[in-house]
Design a protein that fits this description.
This protein is an alpha/beta fold. It has 10 helices and 8 strands. 43% of the residues lie in helices and 16% in strands. Helix 9 runs parallel beside helix 10. The protein binds 2-phosphoglycolic acid.
Length: 249
């Protein structure tokens, strides 16, 4: 059965003063529930503190990007090994904000995902089209191309997570409709089946991301081939994050 993952993405938000939200989220998640994982990906400065705050609960902590090298002369960058050392279990790679702000290509993202696997982290590989691409009818071709290029050679199905985040739905309050999500997630699953076989593809959690919140989570999570969410704004408050987690099966 495909695992379900409810993952928060704090982006460039959060100071030590925000650790109370992590503690509250950890308390709410408690020992967790069968088949559903809870994760908060936080800025690198908070990974170790968040891991301490979540200790003893089933809540996991992740990073938001990593460099492909293990160490070296890359001022300001963070390696996957460093995130693992700080207590992370996952790392987001290829978020559209990284692709846009830092020019990260599919090739770079594949290198980051390979680094995550090398360090024993689960990469959450993000893909998703722009509004222009959707209007031009290019969505399925574009995300298929992103999948082909962003999953590293040699990755095993059980080690990776894919997040479909239409760029026009991120932080805009505009959510993709269940039909739109269904169409893309079905296409993603078939691309993955071509690469990993149907049994392998079935092991890969496919998350939806883009303005997911407590009020729309149930409808999104019910869509076939949706195995969880990558949640930005609504993950900053433990109460909202837990309200979404509570609806996941
Ligand atoms: P949002 O962000 O939930 O604030 O739209 C999602 C994301 O970018 O991961």
């Amino acid at each position: 059965m495909t695992r379900t993952l409810i993952a928060g993405n704090w982006k460039m938000n959060g100071l030590k003063a925000s650790l109370g939200e992590i503690r509250d989220a950890a308390a709410g998640v408690g020992r967790g529930k069968a088949g559903v994982e809870a994760l908060l990906c936080v800025p690198a400065t908070l990974v170790s503190l968040a891991a301490e705050a979540a200790h003893g609960s089933a809540l996991k902590v992740g990073g938001e990007t990593c460099h492909d090298a293990e160490s070296g002369a890359h001022t300001g960058d963070i390696s996957a090994e460093m995130l693992a050392d700080a207590g992370a279990s996952h790392v987001i790679v290829g978020h559209s904000e990284r692709r846009t702000d830092h020019g990260e290509t599919n090739e770079i993202v594949a290198g980051q995902a390979a680094a995550a696997l090398r360090a024993g982290l689960t990469p959450i590989i993000c893909i998703g089209e722009s509004l222009g691409q959707r209007k031009a009818g290019e969505t399925l071709d574009f995300v298929s191309h992103q999948i082909a290029g962003s999953i590293p050679e040699g990755a095993k199905a059980e080690e990776i997570v894919i997040a479909y985040e239409p760029i026009w739905a991120i932080g805009t309050g505009e959510v993709a409709s269940p039909d739109q999500i269904d169409e893309v997630h079905t296409a993603i699953r078939s691309r993955l089946a071509e690469r990993f076989g149907a049994d392998g593809a079935a092991l890969i959690p496919l998350l939806y991301g883009g303005s997911m919140k407590p009020g729309n989570a149930a409808e999104i999570l019910e869509v076939t081939d949706v195995n969880g969410g990558l949640i930005g704004g609504a993950s900053l408050k433990a109460a909202d994050f837990l309200a979404i987690y509570g609806q996941a099966k």
